[in-house]
Amino acid sequence: MTAVSPVQEDVVASDRGASLLAIAAEVASCVKCGLSAHRTVTVPGEGSLDPPVLFVGEGPGAEEDRTGRPFVGAAGQYLDTWLTPIGLARSRCFIANCVKCRPPQNREPHPDEIGACLPYLERQIAVIKPKVICCLGRIAAQTLLGTASSLGALRGKVHERHGFPVVVTYHPSAVLRDKAGLRKPVWDDLQLLRSLLQK
Ligand code: URA
Ligand code: SF4
Fold this sequence. Notes:
- The chain is 47% helix and 13% strand.
- By secondary structure, the protein is α/β, with parallel strands linked by helices.
- It has one domain (7-197): Uracil-DNA glycosylase-like domain (Uracil-DNA Glycosylase, subunit E, 3-Layer(aba) Sandwich), CATH 3.40.470.10.
- β5 and β6 (164-169) form a beta hairpin.
- α1 packs antiparallel against α4 (111-128).
- The two termini are 17 Å apart.
- The model has no long low-confidence stretch (mean pLDDT 94).
- The chain binds uracil (URA) and iron/sulfur cluster.
- Residues 57-61, 64, 70-71, 73, 75-76, 97 line the site of uracil (URA).
């Protein structure tokens, strides 16, 4: 393998940074779906330019809609506690959502809204080239894997999407609501994620 010099790495990083900024700028003025009418600010996603893991959630909640940053509310703080045990600092990851604007009253995004927004996520994936994608919850899993299967059926194995390994686990909000039943499977899913990172 040819060694990449620190200078070349800087060029790759700045190209990626510029591409992500361009996507975020398009998102900021996007009116491709009805969610644009309800948002305070868009939440394009953020994180490392060379992440071991891309986490994909559903869509911004109230705190995200206020700050423009993904997973900063209760679910995000809970997500942070999942990362440390598997040796992942949040700053090393990239975090994004299926839709970049908050659905009113935190309802699930509709299929047409997800379809309108998906190209942004696809472009983000193509730019950052994560080692592994981890879907948080059913909406992200079904969207990225193009399936209507249940989360229970999708978790526990490694999928592939455009050449990227994909694992699936429950959404942190769901685990916060139902700690007893979901903590163990989430723990197992995190171990699967960790094993992929060690390869
Ligand atoms: N839930 C999500 O799915 N995404 C966020 O960014 C916050 C909460
Ligand atoms: Fe555009 Fe996505 Fe926001 Fe819809 S949710 S307006 S597609 S950025």
